[in-house]
Write a structure and sequence with these properties.
Layout: E1 6-11, E2 16-21, H1 28-44, E3 53-57, H2 66-78, E4 83-87, H3 91-98, E5 106-109, H4 112-128
Parallel strand pairs: 2-3, 3-4, 4-5
Antiparallel strand pairs: 1-2
Helix pairs in contact: 1-2
């Protein structure tokens, strides 16, 4: 049985969307379904735009076609999240993923722990004050 191309998990307490890409090549229909699912997940929080964060786990992702990647790049540019952390360890995936950094609130990391620290640094600073 083939693996699902992606998973999206919502943590309403932390206002966190976690997106996990699996080792599956996407076609444009999957990319459009991913876009629709991302928008629905973000809307499910019921919070103002720019108040949730996104963690994208690309550690098991495969390189995608140019047409699929372009759709993902546009989605990253349109995203309303306060921060988006991309986690990719493979050098080739990091090269492709670097092109998703279309604004300074989208940052790539090699390690999941570093990404999580960056995502929640503002929240932890407010809690400590």
């Amino acid at each position: 049985m083939a693996s699902a191309p992606f998973r999206i998990a919502c943590d309403p307490v932390r206002r966190l969307l976690t997106m996990t890409f699996d080792q599956v090549f996407w076609d444009t229909d999957v990319a459009e379904r991913f876009r629709a699912d991302c928008l629905a997940a973000a809307a499910s929080f019921g919070c103002a735009p720019g108040t949730h964060v996104v963690l994208v786990d690309l550690r098991n992702a495969v390189l995608q076609s140019q047409s699929v990647f372009e759709r993902l790049r546009l989605l990253a540019g349109d995203a309303t999240a306060a921060k988006i952390a991309l986690v990719a360890a493979d050098p080739l995936a990091r090269m492709q993923t670097k092109r998703l950094q279309v604004r300074d609130t989208i940052v790539m990391f090699a390690e999941m722990a570093d990404a999580q620290c960056w995502l929640f640094a503002d929240e932890e600073a407010r809690a400590a004050a």
